[in-house]
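Weekly puzzle thread! Below is a chain. First person to post its structure in token form gets bragging rights.
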Amino acid sequence: MREASWSLESYSPELDSDLAQVGLADLGDLPLQGLHPAAAVQEVCDALARLDASAVPVLLGGDHTLTAGAVRALARRHPKLRVVVFDAHLDLREEYEGSPWSHACTVRRVWEQVGDSRVVLVGVRSGVWEEWAFARSHCRWWSGALALPETVHAELLSGPVYLSVDLDVLDPAYAPGVGNPEPGGPSFSDLLRALYLLRGLPVVGMDLVETAPALDPSGVTAVAAAKLLREMMLCFGQQAPRERPTCP
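Winning reply:
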């Protein structure tokens, strides 16, 4: 994504805003290779805890499980945190192939951090029966569509929000280089429009995950991710309240 971003301008004509006018710092990669997934999640949590509380962290990946670590940190800082996830998959399994830390379990781990009716799932179109049943009982909203009801949007405006975008929410025609492509999704332009409609949400952290450039020799996926990242940072890169989390 870093390399692909060099092919893009820093200015967004849609948002009339420029990354050159936003305070940005690339803190590099977290050394997660070889760690057990639970340890990697904790490493992400600890990294966010070390950041200045005025920063709005933006995480890039890679495996969606990093979201669980980010939410762990920010939920301690913001007890009323809500989480919005754009994803083709529900990711609400209790465990997958014997592990509770699979990417297929990410939203379940997130829900454990924030509680009932504080998770919103957008663009979802895949999951086992038990996941759909869990979503009906415990999530605030879930839909294969990208638009949110006005009541849900209003709730999100009232409190801190963590935004997670799994690139496989897009139809594979627009982003083939993801770990689990799921046909029947929206176009890149549709996703951008949906994010623009959320501009103004009090976002205190966000991520863009499941990008796998090695699976797309054309490079299209990485460029799509880089442009999406630019628009997300310009839409939601406001400062968060000062308060430092702890992650024992």
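Puzzle host: Confirmed. Bonus trivia for everyone else. The chain has one domain: 2-7+53-236.
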